Amino acid sequence: MDLHDFDDVAENYDLYLDMMYKKEDNHSGFQEFYLDFAREFGKDGVIDIACGTGAVLLYLAEHGIMADGTDLSEAMCRVADQKAKEKGYDLNIFPANMTEFQSDKKYSCAIIARSGFMHLLTPDLQRRALLNIRENLVEGGMLTFNTFDPHPFFQAQQMNTKENDYSLRLEYVNKQGQREKIYNAISYDPYTQIMSGNWKFETLDDNGAVIGERIRPLKMRQTYRQEMKYLLELTGFEIVNVYGGYHKESGEGSAKNVIWCVKKV
Ligand SMILES: C[S@@+](CC[C@H](N)C(=O)[O-])C[C@H]1O[C@@H](n2cnc3c(N)ncnc32)[C@H](O)[C@@H]1O
């Protein structure tokens, strides 16, 4: 399976993600954060890159900002588009790789929400994405994206796990009304800085017996903030703000989720 193929999860993505963040809350406040960002910088157009099923895109539309959306996965774009139409919005949502998409118009604001940038697994892909996004921004245009800083405590834990050391993350009810349990096993390679996660979905019958199982591999790259500072400089961006969370917590010190707000120079 293509590691970045979200086709098999697109239909259920919102259902289980809502459940996950209810329990873990590590993205609390993300929609407000991106709305503020779009309001401040989006006067010449906003693009939501790696928009997924439209969590940010639709939130912006509900608040009067009609952004464009793009995602590598056609299925994710389709779900986002369907949701937009159901709510009466006619948005421009198109499938594309962030390393190479080209738009007819240039934007003053680009958003890569909730770790979309971490799906780029090498510094070269990160560089290509930043250069390409820069091409699609007006002079002085702003981009926000987030990275996870490699964290010694989690690294140590995840360097000792195997690909089938599953632990239960959550249970939810899928689009077909069936209960599903989701497990994951995460391991970390300090040489590539890649977190590899196997996500296992078990479908249950009414008595709780397992009637189906699928495993979905997912890889994301962590990035040292010093590395990112140089990459941004190399690709023609100036750092405007660095936050440690969606409530604009300080991005210094031990912040794990690092949110970058950068300007095209
Ligand atoms: C963690 S999801 C986040 C989705 C959305 N931003 C949200 O907040 O719900 C990551 C998304 O990144 C997309 N993606 C992964 N690699 C990509 C790439 N190279 N270009 C564009 N989208 C990509 C995936 O298809 C997926 O929809």
Overview of the molecule:
The mean pLDDT is 91. α2 (30-41) packs across α3 (55-62). This protein is globular. The termini are far apart. It folds into 2 domains: 13-146 and 223-264, Rossmann fold, CATH 3.40.50.150; 152-221, N-terminal domain of TfIIb, CATH 2.20.25. The protein has 265 residues and is an alpha/beta fold. The protein is 28% helix and 32% strand. The longest helix is centred in the first third of the chain and has 13 residues, at 74-86. The structure holds S-adenosylmethionine (SAM).
Summarize the structure.
The chain contains 7 helices and 11 strands. By secondary structure, it is of the alpha/beta class.
Task: Give the strand line-up of the largest sheet.
Answer: 3-2-1-4-5-11-10
- Oligomeric state as shown: single chain
Task: Report, as a whole number of angstroms, the end-to-end distance.
Answer: 39 Å
| Radius of gyration over C-alpha positions, nearest whole angstrom | 18 Å
Reported for the largest beta sheet, the result is: 7 strands, mixed
Count of separate DSSP helical elements: 7
Structural class: alpha/beta
Strand % is 25-35%
What's the pLDDT, averaged over the residues? 91
The CATH architecture assignment of the largest domain turns out to be 3-Layer(aba) Sandwich
Low-confidence stretches: none
> Under the CATH scheme, which class of the largest domain?
Alpha Beta
* Total individual domains: 2
Full CATH superfamily name of the largest domain? Vaccinia Virus protein VP39
Global geometry? globular
Number of strands: 11
Give the helix level as a range of percent: 25-40%
Please provide the ordered H/E string of secondary-structure elements.
HHEHEHEEHEHEEEEHEE
